[in-house]
Amino acid sequence: MKNGVHEKVGKAKYFWFINKREKGLFISGSMLKEKALQYYEDLKDTKKCTSRGKIYSE
Known about the structure:
This protein is an alpha+beta fold and 58 residues long. It has helices at 2-22, 29-45, and strands spanning 48-51, 54-57.
């Protein structure tokens, strides 16, 4: 499970980086780290699933 989240964070961060660089923006290491933490927190929240109207955490 942990590997899956890290892989998704890496992919999301990569696409964010490419998008910003295509626009000519400078991206620092600090910015990448901050974005990775943000994506990690966002992905942790998506682990909540619905089943028969109930929400539970995996």
